[in-house]
Design brief:
The complex is a heterodimer of chains A (361) and B (310). By secondary structure, chain A is mostly helical. Chain A is built from 15 helices and two strands. Chain A has one domain: ABC transporter involved in vitamin B12 uptake, BtuC (Orthogonal Bundle). The chains are: A mainly alpha (361), B mainly alpha (310). Chains A and B meet through strand 1, helix 7, helix 12 and helix 14 of A and helix 4, helix 10 and helix 12 of B.
């Protein structure tokens, strides 16, 4: 008879071991999936996880690694604060879009003014503000009207996607674009461009922001009273109220911070790697960041590592798509499997497995 | 602008059909939530149902087999959620989200060779005599079988939860799993059955979309309907009749906005396209602002993990 016995406290060793086990299990299950699709599983796994870092063309892929990991880490750090407090912002994709639109709109309004010291900081501010305000909608609806923030934040993603389409086809469409959808390319406008800081490294301001967010997130959670309140509210909402934590304010803070970080990520993406506001601007970073946050155990350092791993699956997935013809959707399945294995194996963190030799009376 | 081109009879007929995927999914989720489980993976189960039903119908040539396959595939996916949350005791919110992400991925993987194909037609069910009635006949009694099934399910679920022994056990499990367990009812069994039922209905809803309404397979074709179904359960404050009302309200808005788009009204297309989501948010706000009324019928153990050894 196998049964689960609750541990008095979650096991720290298992908390760090389960993500690694989950990655291994995903590789096995993913390998089976690729074999089922008629591909050599070992070759696919090597193309995804090995070649981009240490293979022959790694010099090209390594730069991409930072480009992809930057927004994932930036968004996931914000989400993790809310998840710890039991505030479920799952609409980061929408906040990412709104940050990009607001930031790009400010940049385009200044066009063609060549004053980088003014234009770029204003864009960054507008991007963060756009994401912040979009996240305030579910925040205020939750605190003022008691409306479920999970549903509202998610439904607002679809609204944001429509606004994106409207902007790309209407107000922000490039006047020189001969009628094609999409704004001016911000990378061709030096005052607004988020260029690579070191050529070929993939390092841009968004990646810098992600690293800063990791450090600040760590300090916040381990040293600051707000971080303590967040952890307290997540562990025991009742105790938090007795300790004087204002639950409404905490909800707004968590949603606001995660929204602003997602907005920053959107701005840095639109001014850098993406270049322009267009219908297909968002590629699901806001949703993948949810997986990153959980895979990183809602811990800033863990999220940094998880962000790189997820970035690797994106880049390796593209490589496997190009060289081996693995469908792009297979990578999405792969990422979903990773989250499932992680959640399944998490049982080992909180419970002990007991095997009774004989049935008890 | 030509509002005269909008035919009210056709509008009502389209409304009944357009509401059906959401009504089916929401009825399933209502039962799941009444058993105390919050499954946020409705969107993922719907899209898997949509693609599985589409593939089965195209390969076999039979829409009926397609609907069966849709229900089975989505129920299997739901049971994955069930094992994770009920046996391995994972967080329901995170697992439900994972189910949606996974469902979206696996559906686009499965549906790769099926883009741009037309599925076998699923005929309307003309109810004898009634469908010959003027106006009412074509509008109400000449619909697809799933429309009648979804309405029958509203009655069935309402009756099941209110008047049957097993429905009472399900509600007891949802209100207080400790008490139900102490009385000797199987919390795990009840919840797994409810989760599978919810999955099957979400799958049917998805197949209704890909086989009847659109009818075609495109990636991400559920476009948030699963989330709207979740919102409608809250809107309906966990009562079958109000869920019906919510689903038809949403169906009405989405059909109306499509008709307004076609009529070329002077409102930006994007604004019309986002209106169903905005109105869903609006009704959610209105219904949940009265805290006592909103929570009066909510299952007490909703979303809480149950572990027998306490």
């Amino acid at each position: 008879m196998i049964r689960l016995e609750r541990r008095p406290a979650p096991s720290r060793a298992w908390a760090w071991a389960t993500p690694l086990l989950a990655v291994l299990a995903t590789m096995v299950a993913g390998g089976l999936l690729f074999a089922f699709l008629g591909k050599d599983p070992l070759l696919v796994i090597r193309t995804i996880f090995w070649d981009p870092v240490l293979g022959e063309f790694a010099f090209y892929y390594r730069g991409q690694l930072l480009v992809k990991a930057g927004p994932l880490v930036l968004i996931a750090i914000g989400l993790s604060l809310g998840f710890r407090a039991g505030v479920w912002n799952i609409g980061a994709e929408g906040q990412y879009i709104m940050g990009a639109i607001c930031g790009a709109a400010v940049g385009l309004a200044f066009y063609p003014l060549e004053a980088r010291w003014l234009v770029f900081p204003m864009m960054v501010l507008a991007g963060g503000l756009g994401g912040f305000l979009w996240a305030m909608i579910p925040g205020i609806l939750r605190t003022r009207f008691n409306t479920n923030e999970i549903l509202v934040s998610l439904l607002l993603v679809y609204v944001a996607e429509q606004i994106l389409a409207w902007m790309a086809l209407g107000p922000l469409r490039s006047p020189d674009g001969s009628g094609f959808p999409g704004s001016r390319n911000l990378r061709h406008y030096d005052a607004a461009a988020n260029h690579e800081l070191i050529a070929g490294s993939g390092m841009h301001w968004g990646v810098v922001a992600a690293f800063i967010a990791v450090i600040l997130g760590h300090v916040l959670l381990s040293r600051h009273i707000l971080g303590f309140n967040i952890r307290l509210a997540g562990a025991s909402p009742r105790a938090a109220r007795f300790a004087g934590v204002n639950p409404g304010l905490l909800v707004l803070t968590c949603l606001g911070m995660s929204g602003a970080l997602a907005g920053f990520a959107g701005l840095f993406e639109v001014a850098g790697p993406a270049g322009q506001i267009n219908i297909d601007f968002n590629v699901g970073y806001g949703f993948t960041a949810i997986i990153v946050a959980f895979l990183g155990r809602l811990h800033p350092v863990g999220i940094l590592l998880a962000g790189f791993l997820m970035a690797l699956t994106y880049i390796g997935g593209e490589a496997a798509q190009a060289t081996l013809g693995v469908p792009a959707a297979a990578i999405q399945v792969f990422q979903g499997l990773l989250l499932f294995f992680l959640l399944a194996l998490d049982v080992l963190t909180n419970y002990r497995i007991r095997i009774d030799a004989r049935a008890r009376a | 602008m030509d509002l005269g081109s909008i035919n009210p009879d056709l509008l009502v007929a389209a409304l009944l059909l357009a509401s059906t995927p959401i009504l089916l999914s929401a009825m399933g989720e209502l039962v799941v939530e009444k058993s105390g489980v919050l499954n946020l993976g409705v969107e993922g189960m719907m899209i898997v149902g949509a693609v599985a039903g589409f593939i089965a119908a195209v390969e076999s040539g039979s829409p009926a087999l397609g609907f069966l396959a849709a229900a089975a595939a989505a129920a299997a996916l739901a049971l994955l959620f069930g094992v994770l949350t009920q046996v391995l005791l994972s967080n329901q919110v995170a697992t439900g989200l994972g189910l949606t992400l996974f469902g979206l991925g696996i559906s686009s993987l499965m549906g790769q060779g099926y883009v741009g194909i037309r599925p076998p037609a699923s005929p309307r069910l003309e109810l004898p005599v009634l469908s010959d009635l003027p106006i009412l006949g074509p509008v109400l009694f000449s619909q697809h079988a799933l429309v009648y099934l979804s309405l029958a399910l509203v009655v069935g679920v309402w009756w099941y939860l209110r008047s049957t022994r097993s429905g009472l056990v399900l509600r007891a499990v949802g209100e207080s799993h400790e008490a139900a367990h102490a009385l000797g009812y199987s919390v795990l069994g009840t919840r797994l059955a409810a989760i599978a039922f919810g999955g099957a209905l979400a799958g049917l809803g998805g197949a209704c979309l890909s086989l009847v309404i659109v009818p075609q397979w495109t990636e991400g074709m559920t476009a948030g309907r699963g989330w709207i179904a979740l919102a409608i359960v809250v809107f309906g404050s966990w009562r079958a009749w109000r869920v019906l009302l919510g689903a038809y309200l949403f169906g009405g808005v989405s059909v109306l906005q499509l008709n307004l788009q076609a009529a070329g009204i002077a409102i930006p297309v994007e604004l019309l396209s986002m209106s169903p989501y905005l109105i869903t948010i609006l009704v959610l706000v209105i219904i949940s602002s009265d805290k006592r009324r909103a929570q009066a019928n909510a299952p007490n153990s909703l979303g809480r993990t149950f572990h027998a050894s306490g």
